[in-house]
Amino acid sequence: MMDWTDRHCRLFHRQITRHTWLYTEMVTTGALLHGDVPRHLDFNEEEHPVALQLGGSEPDDLAKSARLGEQWGYDEINLNCGCPSERVQKGAFGACLMAEPKLVADCVKAMRDAVDIDVTVKHRIGIDDVESYDFVRDFVGTIADAGCKTFVVHARNAVLKGLSPKENREIPPLKYDYAYRLKKDFPALEILINGGIKTVAEIDLHLQHVDGVMLGREAYHNPFLMAGFDARYYSQLDGGLQPTRNAVIAVMVEYARAQLTAHGDGGKGLRLNSITRHMLGLMAGLPGARAFRQTLSDSKRLALGDPALLMEALSHTQLVTLE
């Protein structure tokens, strides 16, 4: 979810679900150790619980980056061993790390020694034409021996050559049973499943076999799917009410106004689109959803930097009567 789940996206999602874990976009160790740390690690207090996802393959660099994440207040450090993009491969991390389980184990151990918060791993079930379940079983077993207790399993192979990242999310077949088998083979581990999951019914089915479910693009494109998660999966409803889209927009108007004011420094400030672009799917499936998206995609209106544009977009829907 690089370039997607930034702090504005996570703040928006937190208005819909208070207890679902949120993950950052992948941040490389190089960006943290040689770049602008506040830009990459600053986040809103309301985002908790939130995990920092790291990309890297050098144990020392990952340990330093994990320590930074803990110092900045993150609740978990997650090592990405699943991203198949060429940019990531050139850095020798992401999905290609699955070919080097002992190195991943060293990375996990270094991070666990550096921090007191959980260190978890997100990975695929195989790479290229390696289809055997034994491959992912042995990978998980090796990393578990280094102390990792939580694995997020994207139940597809990663094809490192010949497929784009988008194609890697669609073409390799989903093998959910591999994640199920991992839970059976490693009952003491926490196994979460990821990949192609779009409905509450699908989530419920997977939770009969594994400990948790991670949503990616469905949560982004249809975010209000998460509105019932707190009551359904965490047995909690803050204030006794499920959030409404109207209430979410009201909060985001004030958030956008505060952010634009804080960053309004002569051309270097935040653009309204940096916030509203994450909200285009809020009305998915409702009358007026297209007009809502079109309003929030109007470049001329967005350039004015007026958060009231969100209220105008809302006026094109029928939420006043629906909610």
UniProtKB/TrEMBL annotation:
<comment type="function">
    <text>Catalyzes the synthesis of 5,6-dihydrouridine (D), a modified base found in the D-loop of most tRNAs, via the reduction of the C5-C6 double bond in target uridines. Specifically modifies U20 and U20a in tRNAs.</text>
</comment>
<keyword id="KW-0560">Oxidoreductase</keyword>
<feature type="binding site">
    <location>
        <position position="154"/>
    </location>
    <ligand>
        <name>FMN</name>
    </ligand>
</feature>
<feature type="site" description="Interacts with tRNA; defines subfamily-specific binding signature">
    <location>
        <position position="293"/>
    </location>
</feature>
<feature type="site" description="Interacts with tRNA; defines subfamily-specific binding signature">
    <location>
        <position position="290"/>
    </location>
</feature>
<dbReference type="InterPro" id="IPR035587">
    <property type="entry name" value="DUS-like_FMN-bd"/>
</dbReference>
<keyword id="KW-0819">tRNA processing</keyword>
<keyword id="KW-0521">NADP</keyword>
<feature type="active site" description="Proton donor">
    <location>
        <position position="83"/>
    </location>
</feature>
<feature type="site" description="Interacts with tRNA; defines subfamily-specific binding signature">
    <location>
        <position position="166"/>
    </location>
</feature>
<dbReference type="InterPro" id="IPR013785">
    <property type="entry name" value="Aldolase_TIM"/>
</dbReference>
<dbReference type="InterPro" id="IPR018517">
    <property type="entry name" value="tRNA_hU_synthase_CS"/>
</dbReference>
<feature type="binding site">
    <location>
        <begin position="216"/>
        <end position="217"/>
    </location>
    <ligand>
        <name>FMN</name>
    </ligand>
</feature>
<feature type="binding site">
    <location>
        <begin position="194"/>
        <end position="196"/>
    </location>
    <ligand>
        <name>FMN</name>
    </ligand>
</feature>
<keyword id="KW-0694">RNA-binding</keyword>
<keyword id="KW-0820">tRNA-binding</keyword>
<feature type="site" description="Interacts with tRNA">
    <location>
        <position position="169"/>
    </location>
</feature>
<keyword id="KW-0285">Flavoprotein</keyword>
<feature type="domain" description="DUS-like FMN-binding">
    <location>
        <begin position="1"/>
        <end position="302"/>
    </location>
</feature>
<keyword id="KW-0288">FMN</keyword>
<dbReference type="Pfam" id="PF01207">
    <property type="entry name" value="Dus"/>
</dbReference>
<comment type="similarity">
    <text>Belongs to the dus family.</text>
</comment>
<dbReference type="InterPro" id="IPR004653">
    <property type="entry name" value="DusA"/>
</dbReference>
<protein>
    <recommendedName>
        <fullName>tRNA-dihydrouridine(20/20a) synthase</fullName>
        <ecNumber>1.3.1.91</ecNumber>
    </recommendedName>
</protein>
<dbReference type="InterPro" id="IPR001269">
    <property type="entry name" value="DUS_fam"/>
</dbReference>
<feature type="site" description="Interacts with tRNA">
    <location>
        <position position="80"/>
    </location>
</feature>
<comment type="similarity">
    <text>Belongs to the Dus family. DusA subfamily.</text>
</comment>
<feature type="binding site">
    <location>
        <position position="122"/>
    </location>
    <ligand>
        <name>FMN</name>
    </ligand>
</feature>
<feature type="binding site">
    <location>
        <position position="53"/>
    </location>
    <ligand>
        <name>FMN</name>
    </ligand>
</feature>
